[in-house]
Write a structure and sequence with these properties.
218 residues, mainly alpha, two-stranded antiparallel ribbon, 2 strands, elongated
Length: 218
């Protein structure tokens, strides 16, 4: 029976059920598309922040001018270019040294993949870029709303993409938070004369802020 109280025949009823199923399928697809796009947009902004703010060094001139130059460069940078920059500036092999013997002031952040190789991490990030472009530019070729063809495959693909994106999104958020906290700490140290103190004075500086550090060699 329809909304007007008129009984429906078997074919009409089946058609209504199929229409409702297609509507539910479309809802699931749109939900999968939406959450992936939101995560990708947030990842792009996190990568942009790292591209502008990580590995700034006084050895290369004014930190402020370096930051301004990068802001201009990356204002419209795409995800693929940001991923390449991240791989170059932040990702390092577990055998690489993070030390720099030159005397300089810097704000640096680099990451060593633990559960996967450096190459595997880079491949994953580049595959995410490819899948992002497929999601944004080629999705109509895989599914048309109201048609059953391709629904299961597309839903599975969207779910797989989500599970690949979420750990990378979380890691980038942690890295951005860490870099911000490092920058705040170094700014405070610079403004309070920390770098002019001897070892005992530096320990007292941390103790005055409720942080207990053991001297090296103990």
């Amino acid at each position: 029976m329809n909304e007007e109280g008129v009984s429906q025949g078997p074919l009409e009823s089946a058609g209504s059920e199929a229409s409702e199923l297609r509507r539910l399928e479309a809802h699931e697809i749109y939900k999968g598309i939406g959450r992936n796009i939101v995560l990708l947009q947030q990842m792009e902004e996190l990568l942009r922040f790292l591209a502008v703010n990580t590995n700034l060094s006084s050895a290369n001139g004014s930190l402020v001018e370096q930051q301004k130059s990068r802001q201009k460069k990356w204002k419209k940078g795409n995800l693929g270019d940001l991923v390449d920059d991240y791989a170059k500036r932040v990702l390092v092999d577990a055998t690489d040294s993070l030390e720099n013997d030159e005397a300089h002031f810097s704000i640096s952040f680099r990451s060593k993949p633990i559960e996967q190789s450096l190459d595997d991490r880079k491949k994953l990030l580049r595959r995410i870029v490819v899948e992002r472009n497929k999601l944004v530019h080629r999705l109509p070729f895989y599914w048309i709303p109201g048609q059953a063809n391709g629904y299961e495959l597309l839903l599975a693909w969207l779910q797989k993409l989500w599970h690949e994106l979420k750990p990378e999104w979380h890691l980038l958020r942690v890295q951005v938070w860490t870099l911000r906290e490092m920058s705040k700490l170094m700014l405070e140290q610079s403004e309070t004369g920390y770098f002019e103190l001897d070892a005992a004075g530096q320990l007292d500086w941390y103790r005055s802020r409720g942080v207990e550090l053991e001297p090296e060699g103990d």
